[in-house]
Design a protein that fits this description.
Helix content: 10-25%
Shape: globular
Number of strands: 18
Bound molecules: alpha-D-glucopyranose, magnesium ion
Distance between the termini: 26 Å
Number of helices: 16
Largest sheet: 8 strands, parallel
Low-confidence stretches: 536-542
CATH class of the largest domain: Alpha Beta
CATH superfamily of the largest domain: Glycosidases
Oligomer: single chain
């Protein structure tokens, strides 16, 4: 394939900076720590690193409440540390993607202080202020994503301000042209420092209904769900005007060349793909979280992949995500035995994969004792917190797993002494080795990175089978989602010879058969069509 722009052929690795590597012993990861671990990322074989926010912040939402868009919080380092990180990353051919948080600032941002000071403030309209309802209550029924009303009354000026998240995160008014201009300057500030793109936080939230109409009730709501689900977010998010905002962001990026714009969007497939925009004028990659939300069954995943592929607009490049700092870890969700299947799926589907730090060593959830809870969402709505998936990276079996010389801000997993990078890096059977091999295969076979996709009929409900192809090269991927052995028979077999490139179980007994292929429990296989017989012969049919 000729089109090999880096964000299509490459892979993205998400770093949650508090939890990746601490360099100064305060128990909180920092920019110098990330720089120290760039060799690891290069060794692993990823192409880009996306760093969650490190800007000055009161940390009410751990950096997603920004008090200064053009700085570095002292907890994480300095602008010089950031410049060094970019230079060292680029030296290793790693791209750097920043987290851009345009929907809201921190309550501590000088813009908000100004806006709040008086109804007549020049920046009053930079945020969303409304008069109370006739009964003195909030202006409408919108709910915060972290529970409770999304409006807070400012006693001094007698109006409510809107916050889709915490009350410490007031929403900016993107209908105001001065807000847009100021935020475009922020993008330019970082582009001028050499960043390769942005992951845009809650991009589908930026524009709200002009009339602030009440959201309709969600008939599917059940009491176990977070309160935000009580209403369908019809008027508070995913408004048509968002596409003008995105077009303007793209125009800011355009003169800088191959920069990527990724949008964080939690919407069903048909709405999600709208964010590619008419004529692909939207974001390059609307983050696709569907694998996180789909039951872990071969049939469900196969149906999802096909539905998503079919829903893509012409030329729209797919992408896949298994986890992030807001979602249950994949190893916790599917179990250790299936973690290898998840890795093989993520790294062989068509589209840019984003890996979440720690998933490559099978980090699962860490139980957080009540006195160590950090996430404000957990305090508002117990059970919904995100601390379990944000625990420190485990590097080795030394003190605090090599993460920090001080007490880590969140507890380490109890298995840190054995589940860590050092233990797994030389172990041929480890998950880390599997990730590394998969990333290597993606570089060696363009069929896997930028090639086409075709799903295959499978004779068992437990196996998801598909092909990736580029020119004459064809690879077959067979994923056994079950804990029992599966025999697959393919009636459409054309007699090709296939070589096994990779198994999630390197110790698998090699089974040979003319008309059947055996997959061990929890096994995934990558096969290469081998017309020339150049590889060790292994005739299998699917
Ligand atoms: C995004 C972030 C999440 C944050 C929220 C508010 O969803 O990923 O961590 O809490 O936005 O900024
Ligand atoms: Mg530190």
């Amino acid at each position: 394939m000729a089109d090999t722009v880096w964000w299509k052929s490459g892979t993205v690795y998400q770093v949650y900076p508090r939890s990746f590597q601490d360099s100064d012993g305060d128990g909180i990861g920092d920019l110098r720590g990330i720089t120290r671990r760039l060799d690891y990322l290069a060794w692993l074989g990823v192409d880009a690193v996306w760093i969650s926010p490190f800007y000055p912040s009161p940390m009410a939402d751990f950096g997603y409440d920004v008090a200064d868009y053009c700085g570095v919080d002292p907890l994480f380092g300095t602008l010089e540390d950031f410049d060094a990180l970019v230079a060292e990353a680029h030296f290793r051919r790693l791209k750097v993607i920043l987290d851009f948080v345009p929907n809201h600032t921190s309550i501590a941002h000088p813009w908000f202080a100004d806006s709040r000071s008086a109804r007549t403030s020049a920046k009053r309209d930079w945020y969303i202020w409304r008069d109370p309802a006739p009964d003195g209550g909030p202006p409408n029924n919108w709910i915060s994503n972290f529970g409770g009303p999304a409006w807070t009354l400012d006693e001094a000026t007698g109006q409510y301000y809107y916050h889709a998240f915490l009350r410490e995160q007031p929403d900016l008014n993107w209908r105001n042209p001065s807000v847009r201009a100021a935020m475009h300057d922020v993008l330019r500030f970082w582009l001028d420092r050499g960043v390769d793109g942005f992951r845009v936080d809650v991009i589908w939230h930026l524009m709200k209904d002009e009339g602030f109409r009440d959201n309709p009730e969600n008939p599917g709501f059940s009491s176990g769900q977070a309160e935000i689900n009580r209403f369908a977010q019809v008027y508070s998010a995913d408004r048509p005007e968002i596409f003008d905002v995105i077009a303007e962001m793209r125009a800011v990026l355009a003169p800088y060349g191959e920069r990527v714009l990724i949008g964080e969007i939690y919407l069903p497939v048909e709405r999600l793909v709208a964010y590619y925009g008419a004529d692909l004028a939207g974001v390059d990659l609307p983050f696709n979280f569907q694998l996180i939300q789909t039951p872990w069954k071969a049939r469900s995943v196969a149906e999802l992949v096909i539905a998503y592929e079919n829903a893509l607009p012409p030329g729209g490049w797919p992408n896949w995500v298994l986890g992030n700092h807001d979602q249950s870890r994949i190893a916790a969700r599917v179990g250790a035995a299936q973690a290898g299947i998840a890795a093989m799926l993520l790294l062989t589907l068509r589209g840019t994969p984003t890996l979440y730090y720690g998933d490559e060593i099978g980090l699962a959830h860490v139980t957080i004792p009540p006195d160590r809870v950090q996430d404000p969402w957990e305090r508002n709505e117990p059970g919904h917190g995100r601390d379990p998936e944000r625990t420190p990276m485990q590097w080795d079996d030394s003190f605090h797993a090599g993460f920090s010389a001080g007490e880590p801000w969140l507890p380490l997993s109890p298995d840190a002494a054995t589940r860590n990078v050092e233990c797994q890096c030389d172990d041929a059977r480890s998950l880390l080795t599997l990730y590394r091999r998969l990333l290597r295969l993606r570089r060696d076979h363009t069929a896997l990175s930028t090639g086409g996709f075709r799903s295959l009929p499978s004779s068992t409900a437990f196996v998801f089978a598909y092909e990736r192809h580029d020119g004459d090269a064809t690879l077959r991927i067979l994923l056994n989602f079950s804990a029992s052995r599966q025999t697959i028979i393919d009636t459409a077999e054309d007699g090709s010879t296939w070589a096994i490139l990779l198994s999630t179980r390197p110790d698998r007994p090699i089974s040979r058969s003319d008309d059947a292929m055996v997959l061990e429990a929890d096994e995934g296989l990558i096969l290469l069509r081998d017309p020339a017989g150049a590889y060790p012969r292994h005739h299998v049919t699917v």
